[in-house]
## 1
Amino acid sequence: MAYPRIASFKSHEDFTGRLKELGLDLPSDAEVQSGDDSPLGQTITLKSGKVGNRFCILPMEGWDGTSDGKPTELTRRRWVNFGISGAKLIWGGEAVAVRHDGRANPNQLMINDANLSSIESLRTELVGAHQERFDRTDDLLVGLQLTHSGRFARPNQKTLAEPRTAQRNPALDPRFGISDDSKMLSDDELKKLIDDFVAAAVLAKKAGYAFVDIKHCHGYLGHELLSGFDRPGQFGGSFENRTRFARDIIAGIRAEAPGLEMGVRVSVFDFVPYRPSDEDRIGIPDEKADPRLTFGGDGSGLGIDLSEPSLFMTLLEELGIELVCSTAGSPYYNPHIQRPAYFPPSDGYQPPEDPLVGVTRQILATAELTRLHPNLTIVGSGYTYLQDWLPNVAQAVVRTGMVDSVGLGRMVLSYPDLPADVLSGKTLVRKKVCRTFSDCTTAPRNGIVSGCYPLDPFYKDMPERKELAEAKKG
Ligand SMILES: Cc1cc2nc3c(=O)[nH]c(=O)nc-3n(C[C@H](O)[C@H](O)[C@H](O)COP(=O)(O)O)c2cc1C
Ligand code: SF4
């Protein structure tokens, strides 16, 4: 592997030296401050409540719910860990399907009347754990992420894709065995789905969540609709039509669940799907791809144009939304831009660039949108690859107003209380720092529950670890 590992940088200078070598304009503070007055300790005041610091837990599912969509002990453990993390914003917990055909796997959580009390208990247990550890919850904001997995739906069997798409896609259709329009959701089906999102939000409000995230990222349905340039009818073509799904859900929720706030997690740029090259498995753009079908893309399939994502943010502001979570691409078809990693997941490809390039790309795109939309509260993603230097970069980007809140994904699977440690001025525990082994992604791609098998002692001891090792050999 050509790229130096982050763990090999022994000093902040080594780390920033590497950034310079790569020509990356990513700020990083040499010293990280602690306490309420530190950049990361500052409060944000929103309509929906107070957020006591600048750390956010990003949504992360575990493929570990029951077949009828209720949480299991594994799900509860993850949410309790989110509660003890010290972060004061919980962006959605994990993707929760608004109905059965939209589940990304047969173990994804689902919100309905029958599951309401258990979905509620996830929140109360998280809040309880936070109260026990930090003695207050008045500055903790907890939302629920609502989803329909669209093209990536596998509601009935782990191995059976049952895609429902927004439009045809020459690179992705063959990967799902799609050869005609029959998997496309019709306009009438989308209208019914909008009602299902609204009904799900009404239930989320009953379950005490402060906001719902109307998921528009990672290639799932909401995101695919944003790039539905070729889709005919009321939900495709023009910007107005491509955002109709979001607008109608927001209007429906305002009418049916007054007082419930909303956020939108959006892939603010996208590249064409990648595939492993035949020679060395390094990722290359899929030759079959249509570069136009990328929301936030510049038409080349490999570049960024934030004009439409910025228009989308303006629209969200006009609709009274104040929370946006910025992410990029898709973990299925271009994971190197979505969750930069040294070691790819088993269905991925070797990184085509130093993963620091991917981290910086997301941070700078988010910074541009934060600059253009000062009235939104914007959470950034994709920081985990920074590893030991995550707190240094996090402080620098918050301090300089490049983002309002730093979202943490994989890092809290391996090191759940990293935010608490940073804010209390403790030295990071190196053996808990995520090294982006990708086992938490490889496991579910092989039908195994997700978790940090290499570093979390709980998962290390699970029998599934052996199964995962076998799957990786295969
Ligand atoms: C195991 C796993 C599960 C995830 N599940 C979700 C999810 O349910 N919803 C979502 O929006 N993103 C999901 N993500 C993406 C993360 O929220 C985040 O964007 C990504 O991991 C990059 O951030 P990081 O570099 O801090 O890990 C998941 C990521 C991982 C590793
Ligand atoms: S399995 Fe653990 S170390 Fe590997 S990427 Fe996931 S959280 Fe990080």
## 2
Amino acid sequence: MMFLNLIVLVMGLQTIHYEELAKERTHKWKMNPGVTVCNNTGVKSYRLTHALKYWEKLGYKFDYIRYDDMISCGEPRFGEIIITLPDQKFDFSNHMASTRITISNKTKEIVKAKILIFPKTANKDRVLEHEIGHALGWPHINQPYHIMNSSWHTGGHNSRGLKLFYKNYID
Ligand SMILES: [Zn+2]
């Protein structure tokens, strides 16, 4: 088993503004991740397509997109971003959604990511874009109107700086 030692990082989009959770972005994917949507999240296909296109324009590629009806849907495979319902233990009092990335201790690269999202915010503008940003390894960037702003209210569609660390990006 290659990935015995894994580190899990948790980030999310907050409805209120407070301290940044992740200040440095040091992790990225080696592969192009696939995306699985658990259907019970209520994420609409047009919303997902829109969110993925946002990142594709910045040079990212996704290996596949699939929708899963299984009740067991919830755990990402290696090489996968999964979009699933939150579990009981996570505090969602001031979060719209949250993302956990798993990093190989050996290579420091992201090997899987889990986006936790409620049906009530699943199709809200910018939320999925923001969480996919975390799934791709981006931390909060608290500039006004930035897609990675930690607060939804002061965020926007600005993508400034998001190309910098993508190693396969060709300008
Ligand atoms: Zn966030």
